[in-house]
Amino acid sequence: MANAAATLPVVETQWLFSREDLAQTPSVTGISDAPAARSSASPQQQQRGTQTLTPTQERVLRGKGVHLIFKMGEFLQLGQHVMSTAVTYFHRFYMRRPLQVSRSGPGWSHYEIAAACVFLACKVEEALRKLPAVVDAAMSSLDKSYEGQMRWAERSFRANQQSHEFQKWRDSILLHEETLLTTLCFDLVVPQPHEVLVRATQSLEVERPVARLAWCILNDCLRDPTWVLFDAPVLAAGAFQKACTLRNVDPANYYAARPLDAPQVGPDDNYYDWLDVFDVDEEEAQSAMQAIDQDVYGFHMPLQHQRPLRGDKELKAKGSAMDLVASARTTQGVSPAPMPKTDTGARAEAPTNGASAAPVAPPANGPTDTSATAAPPGATATAPAAMPSSTAAAPRKRAASTSSRESGELSS
Fold first, then answer.
1. On the chain, which terminus has fewer CB atoms closer than 10 Å, C or N?
2. Phi/psi at 130 (nearest 5 deg)?
3. Same structural domain, 157 and 220
4. What pLDDT score does 367 carry?
């Protein structure tokens, strides 16, 4: 496995992280590779040194930044793939740069970086939004007053472009966009786990409730750095296996017909099993499912119940399984919440044949909490009659995750 990692290009491994990397981020260790941040610090800050966070505190702040991304995405009516790209930029950035603990301290604010990630993702995913519109989205999403929340829900907020706050946000987004580009090494093409899930569930002809639940589980993964621990096929396979577990369905019951142009190893190799369709190993899928259960739901679910973050409804409007997983631990045969209607602007649309539609922005009167909607009846997958066992090409073995620090020091 180590030899395989050495032979892979750095571009394929520098954005795959391990649990050890999460415990040694710049926010936790206090070691920043950003000369600009150190040079701009005041003498008091330099004497005090870089303020550090615990891994738990860092994950909480990352969750708040992700919620801002989704609130801005709802305000701008962005597709799911745009927000997923922005969240990926966000998590990758803080694997190399420290979070800002206080307003006067060094580091990068999670709110300012989140706004810059949305602006950059709109460009990369060709969902262009003008800079004033992105500033309006950030200012409206952070307005905690009742009137501000009403204007956010109606998308009627328009900032005064001559005001000091507007100019501050405008300059901040432009400045942090440059920092993002250098930190991300201009590697802006992001694999989409949602897209992998859609194609796989369509090939496997998965029932709509199971595919919809897997889509919601992927959305919940956006909250946590688990999103950057696995590449797209592995994370999608883990979400699918988790959905099958919650629905009491054996994923081994799903098969896909072998394409006509695919090589046939044996005389009975006319079908692929679900692992071959996702192109993962059973060990990889199991590891991703355990990370989803422990890190995503085991960590964020208690926080949500203790102190719900502003933006939970916005994430649920895009499809979230947080409440469903909580009830599934004590309730048998629970069904997933229905998904919103299809967003025609999304690149990776949710499955329509045996799966759910892609999520969209909430209606004009505010975000919709899908957890209160009646759930559809469940369905059980059945294996095809006299289905031959799949002996197609052996699933690939992935290289071990390597730290991004192997790519060298970067300047901000």
1. N
2. -70, 155
3. no
4. 38
Which residue range is the domain that position 21 belongs to? 7-34+52-190
Give the count of alpha carbons within 13 A of 358, CB side only. 22
CATH number at residue 259: 1.10.472.10
What are 266-280's pLDDT values in tens digits?
555 667 889 988 989
* Residue 232: C-alpha distances to residues 67, 289, 343 (Å): 21, 13, 22
In this structure, are 137 and 251 located in the same domain?
A: no
Residue 82, Cα to own-chain centre: how many angstroms?
A: 11
Clarify whether residues 179 and 257 are in a common domain.
Answer: no
Residues whose CB falls within 8 Å of the CB of residue 364, separated by 6 or more in sequence, listed in order: 153, 154, 155
Same domain, 209 and 347: yes
Instruction: Specify whether 159 is located in the same domain as 174.
Output: yes
Could you tell me the maximum CA-CA distance found in the chain, to the nearest angstrom?
75
29 and 142 assigned to the same domain: yes
Its pTM stands at: 0.68
Could you give the number of structural domains in the chain? 2
Low-confidence stretches of the chain (pLDDT beneath 50): 1-11, 34-49, 306-317, 324, 326-412
- Claim to verify: residue 344 and residue 222 sit in the same structural domain: yes
* Residues 248 and 335 both lie in one domain: yes
Residue where a domain terminates, one of 163, 190, 217: 190
Contact 22, 225 (CB under 8 A): yes
